[in-house]
Amino acid sequence: MKFLSTVLAAFALIAATANGSPMLRMEAEGKSKSQQQTQQSSTSSSACNLSGTYKAGTDISSCSSVTIGSLTVPAGVTLDLSKAKSGATITFTGTTTFGTQKWADPLVLLGGSNLSVKGSGTLDGQGAWYWKQGQSIARPVFFRLQNVASSTLSGFTLKNSPFRTFSLVTCKQTTISGLT
């Protein structure tokens, strides 16, 4: 149960990171859609949306809610939800796909407190690519919960894990339930 709480906290962190996206700055500067990043934030700083191609360093720290739609995370980049606002809700609604690369960092990093990470979405770790490489290569942990407290993770689907599905580091009072 503590493991699940940690995962939820990580999702909340992702939500908070989405708010300060460089993609939004490009849109405000009048750049074309092809020049814009795909992370988007609503006009309210409390509701943030992530879709398209994720950019490392996306800031979700001011988001009370983060919705993650169809999202592609490039190889070698962690979907960083570790700075989620306390009490944030992170909702996976689409398919999140991760690029493949030999590396040991997590695909998803969640951190924070009083987070609710949920949704009907699917996270695809592209495990088949790693499995074909053999056991001696560096592989990412799918979902790391780090410093997550009093949080819940539920409802979404994790598939094709490259290595371990979850890694819990310094988590407490966290519940993980109903994941597929």
TrEMBL record:
Residues 33-46 have a biased composition (Low complexity). One of its GO terms (biological process) is cell wall organization. The keyword Manganese does not apply. Gene3D superfamilies: Single-stranded right-handed beta-helix, Pectin lyase-like (2.160.20.10). InterPro entries: Glyco_hydro_28, Glycosyl_hydrlase_28, Pectin_lyas_fold, Pectin_lyase_fold/virulence. It comes from the Eukaryota. Residues 27-48 are annotated as: Disordered. Keywords: Cell wall biogenesis/degradation, Glycosidase, Hydrolase, Repeat, Signal. One of its GO terms (cellular component) is extracellular region. SUPFAM superfamilies: Pectin lyase-like (SSF51126). Pfam families: Glyco_hydro_28. Transmembrane segments: none annotated. GO terms for molecular function: polygalacturonase activity. Belongs to the glycosyl hydrolase 28 family. This is Polygalacturonase.
